[in-house]
Protein 1
Amino acid sequence: MILKKAQSAIEFVIIVGAVAVFVIIFLGVINANISEKTRENRDLVMQEIAFAVQDEINLAFRASEGYSRQFELPSDLLGLEYKLRVKEGSIYVRSTNEKHAMALSTLEDDVLNVNYPEGEIDVSFPIKIKKDLGMVSVDKVNV
């Protein structure tokens, strides 16, 4: 009788262990899928931000003299801070953890004046873009 109980206990432990292993593997796969979707969504948001800035600069370049517009960008990438830099005819967007990055070019780099230190735009404030004397300027809005 004791041998049957011991055998039943061992079988129970083996079954519980196998189920636990399958549950852990299942949860790991789900976690990997969620992480991948979050990464893809952040990349899409980053791409939208880069294209929005590119469109604003190109629109200002093509606009008539005196064009001025104020716009805002999201302050984060789905909970992740990012940096935006416009320099030498290129737009760079990268996350602060440096796992996400994107670069685009603008139409004309020789007519672009970015009034930020090192061309890094502070996305926590509204941004003003204007065209004067053939130069497109990107400035922060004084609040």
Protein 2
Amino acid sequence: MIPGAYDAQTDPSPFWEETLMAWKKPRVTEICLALEINCYASAGL
């Protein structure tokens, strides 16, 4: 899902740096949409 995630096993530094950078400027719309979908999925169960 995250570009560079495959580097986590060999060299975790790029992975964590990208993750931190992504959370510094989160895409609010995508996060809200993901949470909404998660709520519907949980309610469906």
